[in-house]
Amino acid sequence: MKSSDKKIFIWSLFDFANTSYSIVVVTLIYAVYFKQTVAEGEPIGDLYWSLAISSSMLITAFISPVLGAIADFSSGKKRFLLAFSLLCIVSTSFLYFIGPGDVFAGVLLFILANIGFESGLVFYDSFLPEITEPKNYGRVSGYGFAMGYLGSLITLAIAYPFITKNMVRITFPISALFFLVFASPLFFYLKETRRKVTTDEPFVKIGFKRVYYTITHLKDYKTLSTFLLAFFFYIEGVNTVIFFAGNYAATTLKFSQKELVVFFLIVQTTAIFGSVLFGILADSIGQKRSLVLSLIIWVGIILFAYISSDIKGDFVVISAKALSVTPEYFIKLSFYVVGLGAGSVMGATQSTSRSMMSRLTPDEKKTEFFGFFSFFGKSSAILGPFVFGVVSYLTGSQRYAISSIGIFFIIGLAILNFVNDIEPQKS
């Protein structure tokens, strides 16, 4: 194996590792466990969950640019990545002790775990320009997401026997152990460019100063600023889908735990192929065109999900009659189709965004700007899940909540039209 290929593999192995947390805690098992067991099935459980998500994302959003600036100054990406990864791993392990009624503890541990997971991505993503050339950003980023979804599949396969035996809580420390084991090679083998730093100023002060300078000079990075604004809106939709897909399927569509696992196996499998395909496509036709295509698909998916979940709607009634099945069964079948479509673009949208960010960012500010990338991504995840939770709580129906997601994709698509898909800008 060539040295460059080895770097890429070890880097992508971290994606393979950390999505064990994402699928078990954020998307599927703990998300449903929290609503049905911890919050004891009450509608306000959606609001608690959305507040937990929003809080963790808000904290991550505001610390990411400063941490990124410090890491750029001190060349300390790997140390920050290790610290936040351990925060996620330890907090996830302790979820094992959360039971019925432990809402505060369940929310607090989730917030800590999610801060660790999301903050770590700032430093992980910023390694991309160090392990490959700009012409390969799209496919290498896609390989990383594909490895992540492969990790999700394997994690679900490991967790499935415990789910069928109603031993849900044990899956939380299992996912933490999976994260720890497969993330370890990055810290032992992947090197980062380091330099000796001499300063009398505290690193935190330096971080704030660098961020302030960048913000006040954003006019020098117009293309990048416009892209980040577009990213803010369309990633809002992606994040909300990720955070509430499991809850929506379990609560509104009455999926059993086994049906949920099958559904997410479908999503993760199509996501592997979608990430690789769009990665290659991005390097061939450009990141912007690939993103536009993925967002158009997203709008179609949300529209289909809304129409196909109305049990009294003409589409469901006529289609169910044509297939000689009950409306309830047709709605479940339709959501599997939604899963196929969402999986095909879920990783692709995030992967292509990451590779486009790498192309547009000046070399000397890679981690700092990935901190801003994280800021826009995480702060966007505050509004979407919160709106979803509030609408679900006020109306008592998640179907109305899901319809609000499409508008974020449409706004992001409109702004993306003004982004020039060009070579990296230099300061």
What is the element layout, followed by pairings?
Layout (H helix, E strand, L loop, with lengths): L2 H25 L1 H10 L5 H31 L2 H18 L8 H23 L2 H4 L5 H28 L6 H19 L13 H14 L5 H30 L5 H29 L1 H21 L6 H10 L3 H34 L5 H30 L2 H6 L2 H11 L11
Helix pairs in contact: 1-2, 1-5, 1-7, 1-8, 2-10, 3-5, 3-9, 3-15, 4-5, 4-8, 5-15, 7-8, 7-11, 7-14, 10-14, 10-15, 10-17, 11-12, 11-14, 12-14, 12-17, 13-14
Kindly provide the radius of gyration, computed on alpha-carbon positions and rounded to a whole number of angstroms: 21 Å
Task: Tell me what the CATH architecture is.
Answer: Up-down Bundle
CATH topology tier name: Growth Hormone, Chain: A
**Unreliable stretches, pLDDT < 50, 5 or more residues?**
423-427
Tell me how many strands there are.
Answer: 0
**CATH top level assignment:** Mainly Alpha
Number of helices: 17
Short description:
The protein has 427 residues and is mainly alpha-helical.
